[in-house]
Amino acid sequence: MTTMTTGSDTLTRDALAVLQPGFVGTTAPDWLLRRIGEGLASVGLFGRNIVSAPQVAALTAQLRAERNDLLVAIDEEGGDVTRIEVRTGSSFPGNLALGAVDDLDLTRAVARELGRRLAECGVNLNWAPSADVNSNPDNPIIGVRAFGADTDLVARHTAAYIEGLQASGVAACTKHFPGHGDTNVDSHHAMPRIDVDLDTLHARELVPFRAAIAAGSKSVMSAHILLPALDPARPATLSPRILTGLLREELGYDGLIVSDAVEMQAIAGTVGIERGSVLAIAAGADALCVGGGLSDEGTVLRLRDALVAAVRDGELAEERLADAAARVRALAAWAQRARGDVTAPGAAVQEGTAPGTGTGIASDIGLVAARRAAKVTASPSWQALKQAPYVATFTPVMNIAVSSETPWSIGAELDGLLPGTESGTFGTDAAAADVLAAAGDRRIVAVVRDEHRHPWMAAALDALLAARPDTVVVEMGVPRATPRGALHIATHGAARVCGRAAAEAIAGV
């Protein structure tokens, strides 16, 4: 039964304040503006809300006309996971590329420039960075989103990223606590489980989060994962032992705790989003991310009313909900102050990061980082291509965090350097004969993504190299497979700038 509430009482305002919902459209719908007026303190933007930077700036201005301190959040990791550049591919390499370079100043500069672009659009909370240690190479959801598999490397780059991002006035949201790197299940689809002991968790998963807390991360996002060593019954998002006992009390974190999206199947398919939202707030979460999949007013009202009913029924302490809402408002106040500080006359501006300079790619620092991240292995006889090749892209099923709208591979970038380049896409039923027929006499550039996780991809590449040993291979995922081909390029991610860096290596420019 739906609990009837008014739009003005404190309890209802607190229940709205802890929600971070999405919506449909490139302008704000009336229902969203109305709920902001009633107490909603945060809004999430997704690729469906974005056409261009000026349009996003106009949208956030429209939202803030209702509430000047509104938190506008986005899932902008750079690299494979981009929302601002969802239709073009990112101007920034992702975490794995930055970890491969292992230059903390570079990571800090990339995060600061990405944050500057978000701030210019009116975004002030970024659901990033990923602090997961990608210790399981078959992980289907983290992969290139992690800085790497080395705990200390991930920790120091997580801290550098937070420092750079927050220097631009955008709050970081370090994820996915207490660590999603050792999973073999995508929590968008089911409940992952990590069966390691406490000593391993403290020595591996938790180290980057300790570094994030020390670096002053304004928020931390929980993971929908089960860790029996910490709590055998409830996933992290719903676990008081993990969110309150571990994160708050043991690690001493005092910032905002945000849940991963409650409509993910690890929550929605088990306890349901209403029950899951109540349990998450009771466990110690302060804000509930929702809207990647469910983006309507009805969802907001269902969650609002579930929280209100839980307080009235005695299941959720009113003080806990009030504390959560207060933490959301405190972060909103910080972001409002930070926006003023960054844009104030005389505020420091990072040199060499003006958009649209040099290459025509929005941020030169992103391309610089992508070039440095590209690992090139060449045969003794290798010579740069002078004629337009055929690019064969072997496409796996993407994890749901990567938008299906976001283009990847290197065909477009290579065509810019070698006009007349042709391209084709090949899936799980691909055969080398199909590629050879499509390529004809052209030199072949085979593009793969996480070859080590996809036997069909490795088999197709084996057959292709047997027939055409002069094939160039570009790995745009985690480079676990042995380098092969006349030229092998590991880009450490599939961002647009990573494609550009690979194209430059192939064309010798």
Poorly predicted sequence stretches spanning 5 or more consecutive residues: 1-8, 345-362
Number of helices: 17
Shape: globular
How much strand content do the residues show? Answer: 5-15%
Number of strands: 14
Helix content: 40-55%
Q: Report the C-alpha radius of gyration, rounded.
A: 23 Å
Mean of residue pLDDT values: 91
Structural class: alpha/beta
Q: What topology, given as strand order, has the largest sheet?
A: 1-8-7-6-5-4-3-2
Distance between the termini: 65 Å
How would a textbook summarize the main sheet?
A: 8 strands, parallel
Explained architecture:
α6 links the parallel β4 and β5 (171-177). α1 packs across α11 and α15 packs across α16. The chain has 509 residues and is an alpha/beta fold. The model is unreliable at 1-8 and 345-362 (pLDDT under 50). The protein has helices spanning 10-17, 30-38, 53-64, 95-101, 104-120, 151-167, 198-214, 240-250, 265-268, 273-283, 297-312, 318-343, 364-373, 411-417, 432-439, 455-467, 496-507; strands at residues 19-20, 42-45, 71-74, 125-126, 171-177, 219-222, 256-259, 287-289, 375-378, 390-394, 422-426, 444-448, 472-475, 487-490. It is 40% helix and 11% strand.
Short description:
The chain is an alpha/beta fold and 509 residues long. The chain contains 17 helices and 14 strands.
Question: What topology does this entry show?
Answer:
Elements: H1 10-17, E1 19-20, H2 30-38, E2 42-45, H3 53-64, E3 71-74, H4 95-101, H5 104-120, E4 125-126, H6 151-167, E5 171-177, H7 198-214, E6 219-222, H8 240-250, E7 256-259, H9 265-268, H10 273-283, E8 287-289, H11 297-312, H12 318-343, H13 364-373, E9 375-378, E10 390-394, H14 411-417, E11 422-426, H15 432-439, E12 444-448, H16 455-467, E13 472-475, E14 487-490, H17 496-507
Parallel strand pairs: 1-8, 2-3, 3-4, 4-5, 5-6, 6-7, 7-8, 10-11, 10-12, 12-13, 13-14
Antiparallel strand pairs: 9-14
Helix pairs in contact: 1-11, 1-12, 4-13, 5-6, 6-7, 10-11, 13-17, 14-17, 15-16
